[in-house]
Amino acid sequence: MMDIISINKKQNNGSSIKRVHSMTTQNISKYTKKLINIDNKINVHDYFLHERPFTNIKIIFNQQIIWCDKALLSAASPIFRELFIKNHKDESILFNDIDLNDFLLMLEFIYPIFNPEINEKNISCLINLSYRFQYDMLKHACQIYVMKYLSTIRRVFNNTHNSEEEGDCFVSNNNGKNEHNKQHVLM
User: What pLDDT is recorded for position 186?
Assistant: First the structure.
């Protein structure tokens, strides 16, 4: 019988989108198991703040340097692709208008070793960065999260209002008299 290893972020109440990596323990070597380090999550800051093998571009955020891989950034974003094509001298890239932590959140979606999730705390910055760098996969993931969030809100709204007919009006009690008002469709 094969054991299945799932590397997941903490289970949530369904309000986040996350990447799930699954593999069979028969197919991975001891070295790979050690690299994966299932018990300890990789620290994003530590990973990018130190130069690693195969990193070939420095990105500077308000005097803080992170180390990245051109190939991964170029595959995710046409903006990065054009920037690297124009930058033949392998000079550092400077972004003083982007928060380092926000950028690291986006990098979690680009690098497959991380298990990122979208939630109410990071959705705004991820939407902004996905549009700025034209990172379509992240844009799509953010859209899915927003649609799920809105459908949850709509479901809660539909369950909490009183209606004469199924979902087409709600009762408001203004100045002691009940008025029936048409419900506006949210989506």
Answer: 47
The pLDDT value recorded for residue 4 is 41
Long-range contacts of 73-82 (CB under 8 A, 24+ apart): 73/110, 76/109, 76/110, 76/133, 76/135, 76/137, 76/138, 77/133, 77/134, 77/135, 78/134, 79/132, 79/133, 79/134, 80/133
What phi, psi does 94 have (nearest 5°)?
-115, 125
Which helix (H) or strand (E) segment holds residue 158: the answer is: helix 136-160
Q: Which two tokens stand for residue 77?
A: 């974003």
Domains parsed from the chain with CATH numbers: 4-182 (3.30.710.10)
Summary count for the chain: helices (H), strands (E):
7, 9
Q: Across-strand partners of 7? A: 21
Give the end-to-end CA distance of the chain in Å, rounded to a whole number.
47
Read off the tokens for 19: 């990447």
Q: Is 120:50 a contact under the CB 8 Å cutoff?
A: no
Element housing 77 (H / E): none
State the 10-residue block means of pLDDT for the chain, 187 residues long.
Answer: 42 52 51 53 88 89 92 94 86 91 95 91 95 96 93 80 50 51 49
Specify the residue for token string 């994003």. Answer: 44
CB 92 within 8 A of CB 58: yes
